[in-house]
Structures are given as C-alpha cells and as structure tokens.
Amino acid sequence: MDLFIARIFDGLSNGATYALIAMALVMIFKATTLINFAQGEFAMFGGFIVLVLATERGLPMWIAVVVGMLISALLAAGIERTLIRPFDPADHLPLVIITLGLFLAINAIAGIVWRFDPRAFPELFPSGNALSVGNATLSWYTIGTLTTIAVVAGGLTLLLNKTKVGLAFRAVSSNLESSELVGIKVGPTLQFGWAIAAAVGTLGVCVFVASPFRQLEPQVMVTGLIFAVSAAALGGLDSLGGAIVGGLAIGLVQSIAVPYLGIPSELSLLAAVVVLMLVLLFKPSGLFGTPQVERV
Amino acid sequence: MSDTNTSTSPELVLDVKGLEGGYGQIQVLHGLDFHVADGEIVIILGANGAGKTTTLRAVSGMIARTGSIKLRGEEISSAKAPDLVRQGVAHVPQGRGTLPELSVEDNLRVGAYIRNDDEVDADIDQWFDVYPVLRERKNQRAGSLSGGEQQMLAVSRALMSRPSLLLLDEPSLGLAPIIVAELFERFAEINKETGTTMLVVEQNAQLALGIGDRGYVLESGEIFTEGPADQLINDDAIRKAYLGV
C-alpha cells in the first residue's frame, strides 16, 4: 500500500511535467492545428538558459526561471517569424518537417554549446517531505510541481479569456479569415502563441530537472515529448484542462500500470505510445477536446 | 444626393476604377468601375461566377488586386484586410463568417477588436436589443446557432467595429424567405438610423433592389449595366435574368 501511494506521488510529479509541455503543445495546436515536434527541445534549450543564468550569472533561481522563460519566448517568436510564417498555415506537411528539423537543430546546438553530459540543476522547491503516509512520503517537490501546473493553467486561462490578446488568439484559433475581417493581424497573434508555448515549456523542463533525481542534458526531453504528445492527445489537443488531466494520467500510467503489469521500465515509453494510439483510434477528439465538426 | 461624376468628390465613400483581381492565375474581374456615395445602399447583382464575391473580397483587401480603389478619396488598393477594418470597412463574408468556437458575446466583443473606447459593452447591449435571440444565446457557441441567427450575429459583429462602409456578401444565402425579408428590413433600418453606407452582393434581386438606392449588374467580371434601383427592378432584361418573372 505504501508503495502504491508512493507510486501515485511519483506519477503525479512526472505527470506535472508532461502536463506543462502538453499545455505548450496545446497552445500551438489550438491556433494552428499543428503539433510542434520541437516543443520539447525549445523547452530543453530554455532550461539550459535558466541554468546558465542561475549558476554562471548568479541570478536567484526563480528570477533565472522567469528571465529564461522570457528569453525562450523571444527566441520562439523569432523562429516563428523566420521559419514558420513564410509557409502557408493550412499546409501542414512542410510545417511538420520544419518542426522536425528544428528538433534536430536545437538538440545539436545545445550539445555543441553545453555538451551532452548531464548537469546538476538547482532545486526550485524546498527539499524534504511535507508529509508521510506510512512509508510513503509526499515531497515538497511533488507539491511544488502540482502547484506550478495549477498556477500556469490559471494564468493561461485568464490570459485567454480576460485579455484582448487572448480574445484575438481564440478568434484566430476559430477562423483565420473572420479574424482578419475584424482587424486581427494573424501573424503576430500566432507568434504570441509560439512565445507563450516556449515560456511554458521552459518552466516545464525546469520543474522536471529540479527533481533531486534528475539532471539537465540535451536529451532530457526527447522521450518527454512523446509522453507530452500522448498527454495532449488524451486530453484533447485543444484543451488546456485536458492537457493537465492527460499529463497526470500518463504520469500515473507510467508509475503505476507499468510496474504492476510487469512491463520493463525500458518499455514505459511504449505504454505512452499505446495510450496515444488507443485515443486516436477510439476517441480522436480526446477526453475534453472539441470534436471536429463539418460545417456546411 | 451628390455629384457622383467627379471621382475626387468627398461624398464618395468608395470609388473604384479599373478593378482587376482573381485567384492565382485566374483573373475574375476585368476592369470594374463603380462607386458608392455616403449613406447609399448599393446592390451588386449577377449570376453565379460573375465575380460578385471576388469584387467584395478585392475591396476589403482579402485578395491581391490592381486598379484604383479610393476610400473617401484615399487610395487603398494595396492595403490588407486588417488595416482596412481600421479605416472603417467591415465585410460580412459569404457563409456567415462568425467565429464558431467563440461564444455569441465574444463574437461581438471581437468585432470591436480595433476599438479602444469604453462603449463596447453598451454597443453589445444595443445589438442584443436589436436581436433579442442573440441575448438569449450569448453564452452559446456561435457555431450552434441556426443559419438565420448566425447571419444576425455576423452582421452585428461587423457593425461592432462602427464601420463607415459595410460590405455584405449574399446575406440571403441558405435562409428561409421570411428570415431574409426580416434581415433586409433591418439593413434598411440600420442604414437609416446609423447612416452606414452599404455595398450588398445579392442574387435575390427583388429584395435587394427593394432596399437599395442603386445597383450594378455584373457579368463575367464586367459591369453589364447599372442604374437606380427602381429603374433596374423594372428593366425587362434584368427581370428576365434575375427576377424570374
């Protein structure tokens, strides 16, 4: 029983990272119905920027995180402007190829700049345990990760529903032409989505590697992205709430179902892919997504 | 109304000369000349494929075009749609043009995207008074409305930008006759009350000319004939071609 509870806590804290990256994916998917395969690498790169700011420039950790999020947002906005916007937004294949290219390029650049060795990442949350249930312990880290996704989800919801730029973003997500006809400039609005997504992703990676059991390296998000894509698809791809539920669910599948079903941990990635496949097969709009409606 | 022969006349809201445009290699418009004076309702009639929709899309900056388009004397033929909205052009595209995933109220709010004044809520309320059914459904997704309700929403959404020129692309399309009659009655009222100038593309010549001041008949991307609405409605050739009588 204690082990079971411990696995739940583990699953939730892993799931929190998948949820954050999944929310970043959802922001871009909502606007463009495109999955940015480089989202995990954007986030990893942002994580290194935060590490440099904190360890080499001596910024306090949370300030380094915020500055790192801003820098990633600016970089993503630049990438959107130069590599994404010149292409027809309705034609997905070239864009998917570009995001795959970005995936490889950013990974390689990070390796050249920061080398491929894992590096210790400063802690973001107090160490130690908040409470113990028998032998299972709920660490401050788990509480911190769950609080972070709650804050990010709340912040994004307010941004989308209570601000003018959020309204424009939702309009562009709904219909490009009608958005232009009310005076919205589609390019900068989508760019805003890329910037927000990169910032959220960077926060996700920081939270992930702030665990005392993990380190930051260029490969850190390669498998994480698969979990995050599965999480986003499970939640419905265009639903931020769905991304959270999907992320936590995938985290729990990984930490509970995989050991209890006796699946070797090397195959836990496969579990995520199986979840992804089942969702696409039986409920393509996910748990909370907007079903595709054919309008006549 | 005004001396519409001089192209520089400030009373002309829209003055178009030699308008050409199309899609990629396909040229649809072959040099159109037309104008719309301040406060007028001008109707563009024509069969399917005559270039009516393309004309509106060229005016509102949705497609590339050549020739001269003057909006209150200012050349706008290279301006893009989002900028023209700021200059007072509102376009209700064919097939409603609402934002289906947004609520009815958000559709109206986004219609006022270019505005920075504090009367947006009051204007939303005013459109809810004009179309009470929209108030009842203000929290529903626009995509869940009926065709007639969506057209009401699309027109209200366009007018939320407080345009000086409203472009309407076949507002009657796919709607029941009684709803179409109501819509057109309302267009005439809005024109009278707010002074909004309107350029309306229609196939329903009878109804459109009924509220219009003047009309143009388009054929294969050229102006075939033009004249005051009451004259066109009695023109034998037009009656045969577009009124089915």
Characteristic terms for this protein:
heterodimer; A: 296 residues; mainly alpha; two-stranded antiparallel ribbon; globular; B: 245 residues; alpha/beta; Rossmann fold; four-stranded antiparallel β-sheet; 10 helices; disordered N terminus
Q: Would you kindly provide a brief summary of this structure?
A:
The complex is a heterodimer of chains A (296) and B (245). Chain A is mostly helical and 296 residues long.
Question: What's the helix and strand layout?
Answer:
The complex is a heterodimer of chains A (about 300) and B (about 240).
Chain A: H1 2-32, H2 39-55, H3 61-84, H4 92-114, E1 129-133, E2 136-139, H5 140-162, H6 164-174, H7 176-181, H8 186-209, H9 222-235, H10 240-260, H11 268-282
Antiparallel strand pairs in A: 1-2
Helix pairs in contact in A: 1-5, 1-8, 1-9, 1-10, 2-3, 2-4, 2-8, 3-8, 5-6, 6-8, 9-10, 9-11, 10-11
Chain B: E1 12-23, E2 26-37, E3 41-46, H1 52-59, E4 65-71, E5 74-75, H2 81-86, E6 89-92, H3 104-111, H4 120-130, H5 132-136, H6 147-159, E7 165-169, H7 177-194, E8 197-202, H8 205-211, E9 214-219, E10 222-228, H9 229-233, H10 236-243
Parallel strand pairs in B: 3-8, 3-9, 6-7, 7-8
Antiparallel strand pairs in B: 1-2, 1-4, 4-5, 9-10
Helix pairs in contact in B: 3-6
Multimeric organization: heterodimer
Q: What characteristic shape of chain B results from the CA principal axes? A: globular
In the CATH scheme, the class of chain B would be Alpha Beta
Greatest interface by residues involved: A-B, 21 and 27 residues
* Percent of sequence in beta strands of chain B: 25-35%
Q: State the domain count of chain B.
A: 1
Total DSSP helices of chain A: 11
Which segments of chain B are poorly predicted (pLDDT under 50) over 5 or more consecutive residues? 1-10
The main pleated sheet of chain B reads as: 6 strands, mixed
* Count of individual domains of chain A: 1
Helix content of chain A: over 70%
How far apart are the termini of chain A? 55 Å
Count the DSSP helices of chain B: 10
Radius of gyration computed on alpha carbons of chain B:
17 Å
By DSSP, the count of extended strands of chain B is 10
Mean pLDDT rating of chain B: 89
Instruction: Indicate the CATH topology of chain B.
Output: Rossmann fold
